[in-house]
Every structure is written in structure tokens, then in C-alpha cells.
Amino acid sequence: MKITVKDEIEVLYELIDRHQTISFDVYDTALLRNVINPTDLLDIVQRKIQERRVGNIDNFKQQRIKAEESARLTSPKEDITLEEIYKQLSVLTKSVDIQIVKEIELETEREFTIANPVIKKAYEYAFSKGKPLFFISDMYLPRSFIEELLANLGYNKFILYVSNEVEKCKGTGGLYSYIAELNNLTKDGWLHIGDNYVSDYEAAINLGISAYHYRSLRERALVKNSYTLEYSIIKALQINIVETSEELDYWEKFGINTVSSVLWGFTNWLIENIKEKGQDNLFFLSRDGYLPYLIYEKLNGVISHLPPARYIQASRRVYQFPNILNMKRQDALDLLTAFNPSLGQRITLEEIFDNIGLNKSKYKSLLNSFGFVSFKDELKSDFQREKVKKMLDSIYPEVEEVLQNEKETLLKYLRQSGIFDFQQINVVDVGWRGSTHKAIRDLTGKKVTGYYFGTTDIVYPDISKDVLGYAFNLGKPKQRQNVVMENVMMYEFIFSAPHGSLIKLVDSEGEITPCFKEEDRIEGYLSSIIKGIIKATESYIDYFSYVKNVTVDDCLGDYIEFIEHKNYDDLFQFKELTSSVGIGDTQDKQPFVTFVSLKEYQNRKKEIRIQVQKNLWKNALVVYGTGEDLEKIGIHFRFAFLDRMEWFIRERIIRGIRNPKKAFRYILRKLRK
């Protein structure tokens, strides 16, 4: 089981209490870099060399790595200095001022190095107990530089030993012995804390020094082997927050690690397009525009001359239904009776009439004349839907009267929100087909340009020239459109706001106020997700010039992998979530994850297989059970089955199964291993 940050701090406190002398490794322990790999800093140095026109060296990173290798090969000492590395670099390249480049490297080290909050707490605790404190580093950087860095980051009282200065390393044990002898330390009273298993743990233990292996954050987070420079910075920022913070819940971590990059990439793309086109206004439409709006406002303090932004209430129900007055009657009837059976949505006559705003008590006899029993009747076939269309067609003037009143209220709200202050307007939303965009254009008569996370290949033809999509535009690239639309509700989920959907606008003595749908279960988790996203965003802003142009693939990659992988811990959390998928005040809720017992799955295989295909997280399934459950359904094994059940009981839930058809066989195969 993974140790929590809080528990690890307590472990460190207990170890410190039991020892007289405390020492810490420096890099990846007391100090962290905001890049995934240390050599990523050399890419940044390369950029700075080019920007400052220090010289002509296109392959600085490769040359710098080669210079370090050469210095180590030619040195008789256990470690080398930065000066020795740059001496070798001066041989490899004559086209730059070596001293200036060296200063740029040190500057970059300062810029991207932060204190580790976990080790900082351990250090402060040891200091409060009056323990002698040492920092020990196998490093080529000058001692004076590391000493200054530690002090500037809050480590104020210590003695520092650096391998390149004393010509001894931790890995050989020589540096530990040197420090012990010089300071007359008792090894059995000494605790060393560091991330390198060989040099910080094994080498210390072999000398009789107590050691705590503080696993590197990259190792804990299971990072990939390589990233683009921009995403290396973003990923390191995420990891350094999540792996060192004490009070983050699952959803805040989800916001930081998994989806913050999606919102960051989209909002920066939006800003680039807005600036390029010289726009003077920006309207973020609820609810999907909420988070981009928050991030935009954060960036407004960093980027100059951005147009003023407003967050206005919008929904397909409140905008599309009044726009029915501009539609052909058949198209209007299609919209009024629309629902989404592919996502498991069910709809009743009551919901259809309530959504329109018709007084049901007036139409009971009409209902019966079309063959329906009550307003609770559910539409279960295309034939029933056609009957409802005919019924609404028979009272269409009354429908128009209701929607005409709504149209007037909506136009008042748009005027109140500032839409009519501009000749042409710009809207931001999650996207897909552009129905709200079209409604605003049709109702106001203004030119509308839409900036969306994605627009499909079925965008309304009359607005297709006025939409731009970030992840995909007008369905291209098709592969990315397919990936997103396969799990469209998972993307709408991360663009949600901590308030219900708009279902009505009310005219209160000239002031138009919004009425919201009763809260979905997902909204209870959104505050934590948003908190995490904003926390990550603020850290990205600190490195804005480096991460503003991160690619779409990088920004979407973690969330795409999250959805496809279906990790057990994630499925377990998402099983609590439900949401509605219909237009307006739809009461029917759909789950993100199906969560069933082993027995239930065995008895209802076919039904469950159909259900999981309609989940808002498509094909997300968790099957759980115990050894007793397996015995009850008559499964027998040739080995002592109960002796093998400890793992199963401990886990409680097997895992999400990507292909539900194989779920039962997977369980048996897993248990037989």
C-alpha cells in the first residue's frame, strides 16, 4: 500500500527522534527540480543561448553531456567539478563564450529548483530538536552554489559536504567515512535520508549508518521515459505538488495530475487565437466555459492586452428552445422530443411537457386521444416518439406562445450580459455541434465566432466558417474526434461547473435571474477538482514562457490514457458519480461506472454487458466479491482455494474490465495465478 505524505512525515519524525545526527541528500530529496529529467535543464539552457545570441551552438545538450562524460573518463578523482566539465566543453566547441553559458546553466538551476516540503518539515523538526544537521551531495555543482541554493530555499543551519570538493563520494562510502571522522560522529547514532537506493541507502547501511530510502518522486509517480520539454515541466510541477502535499483528496489529485493540462492547453490556444484576431470581447458560456474562464482570468494577470471576459449563463434548453421559432416545424418537433438512448437516457411525456413549459393539466384528454395513459408514460420506441410529435404539432401555436415569451426573456438577459454592446461577439464553450452558438446568432442577428474544445463533422453548415476547435475542428483530425466522442461525457465532466445546469431565466422586475437544475451528484466532487486544477494552473503560470505552447497531444495524453486504462482506484471513485445527459430538467441519471457483485454479474451477464456500453465512462465495470461468493456459485479449484484468498479479500474489488465480455473469465484467471 502506498504511504501517504502525512504518514511518511510521521515516520521521518520518529526516526529523527531515535538518532543524534541527521543528514540529508540534496537533489531529489531536500531539493526538487521542476523538470522530469535533470538533462531537460540543458534544453532550456540551449533555448536561452539562442534567445540571448550568446553564440552558435545548435547541439548544446549533446555537447554538454559529452563534455561531462569526457571529464569523468579523464579524471582520477571520485567526482568532478562543473569547471572541469566546461573545460572539456571548451575543447568541443569554439563558437560560444563558455563562461557565459556556464552562468546560464547555474541561473537555470536556480530557476527550476524548489524545496521539497516533506524534507523541509523533517529538517525543521530535527532543527527544533537541536540535532546536528548535514547535507551531503554527490554533485558536480560548486559547494558555494548549493549552499546558497539551500539557504535561499529555507534551509538555514547546516554543514554541507559536496563530493567534487572533498573528492569522495557517497556511493563508495568514502564521503560518509570522511564526514564521520572529521566531525567525530558515532555511526550508530547517525540517520541519513536520501533518494538513491545505492548511494543514500545501501552505502550508508554497509557502514553501520541508519538510512531511510526516500523514494524519488519520479519513481513514485511512475513517469514515462521521455517527454517534450514543455510537458516535462508541466508533469514535474504536477508530481512535485501531488507527491509532497499532505491534505489532497482523490479528486484534487485528479484535477492536478490528469485534467489540468487539458484546460491549460485549451485556454492558451484560445488566448493565442483571440490575440491573433484582435478580438475585443469574450463570453464564456456556462457550464462548460467555467474552468476556461477561471484560467483565462488567471492568465489575464500575466498576458497584456487581453479582451475583457464575462461568464454568462447558457444551456441548450434555454437557448435552443426559443430558437425553435426560427426553425422549420419538423426540425422543431425533433428537438422538442429529443433524447439520447445510446447513453441510456429515458424520457417521459411529463418531462417533455415540463421542458417546454406547458401546463399539463390542460392536456390530459389530448394525451388519451393519442393513445397514452398518463404523463408518466415513457417513450420506448420511434413509433411512440412520432405520436408525441403529432400531439405537439396539434397544439403547436400554444408551444410557440410559450417559447415566444422565453425568447423575449432570453434577449433581455443577453442584453443585460453585454452581448448587444458589440457588433460581433466571441463565445467559448466545450463545443461539438454548435447549437448554442447558432441560437445566439439567430436570436440576436449578430456575427458570432465560437472557440471550442472540439467541433464535430456535423456542425451546422451555416456556422461552420465561424467555429474553431482545439482538439479537433469540423471533425479533423478524425482520430482525435473519435477518441473524444467515444467518451464524450467524460470530457463534459471535466468542463463542468460547481452549479447546476441552467433550466430557466426569470424576469424579476426587469432583472433577469437564472434558475438552475437540482444538483447532480458529480457537482459534489467538482469543488475539489477545480481546486486542484487552479493549484496546478498557478504553478504553470510561474513557468509561463516555457509551457505556453505545449502541444495538444501532450495536453490530452494523460486523460486519454486515464480513460482507456480504467485503473481500479479510479473506477472505485467514479462509481459514486451519476449525471443526466438530456436537455433541460431531465430527471433520468446515468452512472459513469457499473459496480456489481460477482454473483450479480454471473446472473445478469447479458444485461450488464449492455449497460456498461451505455455508461458515461464507456465500458467501465467493477466486479467485486469474496471467496464465499465464488463457492456459492459453484466454482471449485484443485488447490487449497481459501489459502489463496488473502489477496482477493484485501483488494475487495478485482479491477475494471475494459472488455466486459471477458470479465468473468478474467476473474477466474486472476485467482488461479
Please characterize this protein's 3D structure:
- Helices cover 51% and strands 13% of the residues.
- The model is unreliable at 635-664 (pLDDT under 50).
- Helix 1 runs parallel beside helix 6, helix 13 crosses helix 14 and helix 15 packs across helix 21 (435-444).
- A 5-stranded parallel sheet has the order 5-4-1-6-7, with helices on both faces.
- By secondary structure, it is an alpha/beta fold.
Short structural description:
This protein has 673 residues and is α/β, with parallel strands linked by helices.
Q: How much of the residues is beta strand, in percent?
A: 5-15%
State the distance separating the first and last CA atoms. 21 Å
Strand order of the largest sheet: 5-4-1-6-7
Using only CA atoms, what is the Rg?
31 Å
Which of globular, elongated, flat, extended, rod-shaped describes the shape?
Answer: elongated
Which features does this protein show?
HAD_sf, five-stranded parallel beta sheet, alpha/beta, HAD-like_sf, 32 helices, 673 residues, Haloacid dehalogenase
Topology:
Blueprint: H1 5-17, E1 21-25, E2 31-33, H2 40-52, H3 60-74, H4 82-92, H5 98-111, E3 113-115, H6 117-128, E4 133-137, H7 143-152, E5 159-162, H8 163-166, H9 174-183, E6 190-194, H10 197-206, E7 210-213, H11 217-221, H12 229-242, H13 250-277, E8 282-285, H14 290-299, E9 309-312, H15 316-323, H16 329-336, H17 349-356, H18 364-369, H19 382-394, H20 396-416, E10 424-432, H21 435-444, E11 447-455, E12 467-472, H22 478-486, H23 488-494, E13 502-508, E14 511-516, H24 523-541, H25 544-547, H26 552-565, H27 568-574, E15 578-579, E16 590-591, E17 594-597, H28 598-603, H29 605-614, E18 621-624, H30 627-632, H31 646-651, E19 653-656, H32 663-672
Helix pairs in contact: 1-6, 2-5, 3-4, 12-13, 13-14, 13-24, 13-26, 14-24, 15-20, 15-21
